[in-house]
């Protein structure tokens, strides 16, 4: 019998950085470049809209999970790492490294997106356009207030963690975790893009907020705190709602 490979911490962190890069580059890139209609030669090129952005984020997680999940567990999200640790499905000692790798991957993606965006004729202003950042009040796509944004980010991140915990449990159907998780993230975006531009992922929010000005950075705390709270709630509640899964091996363990 061939033993499965054991990955080093460096390999796991590299996989997390690459996967988070792909999530931000694919999801936020779609929002920046393709979401809105653009005039071309006196005609209007049709953009993908919020529906397209929702599918873009779902597809990045789906493809990233199958590409990198066997190496690192495919978190690509500090809130997911926290929720898994609270649920005792991930080692707390590995959490700081994962979070740093995820934020670095997201930030590199944001920087690359900005370089590309600035190549358009007439220039590009990430502050004026919003640069796919999250926000509340006048920075919410439809003007939702702070309370609405906090509630939806907590609830949807908790649901996302429930899906992840259930789909990756020992008793779950083998091989379908990436598909169910990717579709869940798509649905999450369909619900909440109008409210908060959808975060449920502190790394995704930070990765573009760095480049979008002081107002974006002033609100990013919400999209760090609320997803972590939602993930922690799901981690604590998973045994009660989904049943114990004590025999699940940590797919991210390097021991």
CATH superfamily: Glycerol uptake facilitator protein
Structural class: mainly alpha
How much beta, percentage-wise?
under 5%
Query: Total number of β-strand segments?
Result: 2
Shape summary: globular
| CATH architecture classification name | Up-down Bundle
Q: Overview of this structure, please?
A:
This protein has 255 residues and is mostly helical. The two termini are 19 Å apart. It has helices at residues 9-33, 49-72, 78-86, 95-117, 126-129, 146-167, 177-196, 202-209, 214-219, 222-242; strands at residues 38-40, 43-45. It is globular. It has 10 helices and 2 strands. The chain is 64% helix and 2% strand. The protein has a two-stranded antiparallel sheet. Helix 1 runs antiparallel to helix 2 and helix 1 (9-33) runs parallel beside helix 4 (95-117). Residues 246-255 have low confidence and may be disordered. It has one domain (9-242): Glycerol uptake facilitator protein (Up-down Bundle).
């Amino acid at each position: 019998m061939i033993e499965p490979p054991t990955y080093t911490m460096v390999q796991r962190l590299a996989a997390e950085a690459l996967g988070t890069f792909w999530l931000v580059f694919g999801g936020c890139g779609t929002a920046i470049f393709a979401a809105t209609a653009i005039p071309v030669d006196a005609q209007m090129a049709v953009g993908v809209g919020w529906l397209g952005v929702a599918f873009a984020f779902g597809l990045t997680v789906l493809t990233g999970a199958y590409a990198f999940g066997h190496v690192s567990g495919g978190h690509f999200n500090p809130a997911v790492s926290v929720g898994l640790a609270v649920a005792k499905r991930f080692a707390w000692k590995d959490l700081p490294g994962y979070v740093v790798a995820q934020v670095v991957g997201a930030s590199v993606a944001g920087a690359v997106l900005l370089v590309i965006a600035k190549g358009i004729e007439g220039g590009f202003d990430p502050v004026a356009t919003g640069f796919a950042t999250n926000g509340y009040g006048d920075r919410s796509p439809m003007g939702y207030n702070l309370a609405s944004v906090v509630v939806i980010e907590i609830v949807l991140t908790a649901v996302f963690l429930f899906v992840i915990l259930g789909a990756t449990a020992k008793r779950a159907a083998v091989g379908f975790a990436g598909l169910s998780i990717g579709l869940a993230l798509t649905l999450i975006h369909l619900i909440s893009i109008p409210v908060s531009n959808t975060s449920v992922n502190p790394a995704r929010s930070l990765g573009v907020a760095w480049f979008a000005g002081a107002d974006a950075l002033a609100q990013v705390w919400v999209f760090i705190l609320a997803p972590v709270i939602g993930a922690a709630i799901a981690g604590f509640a998973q045994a009660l709602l989904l049943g114990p899964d004590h025999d699940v091996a940590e797919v991210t363990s390097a021991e």
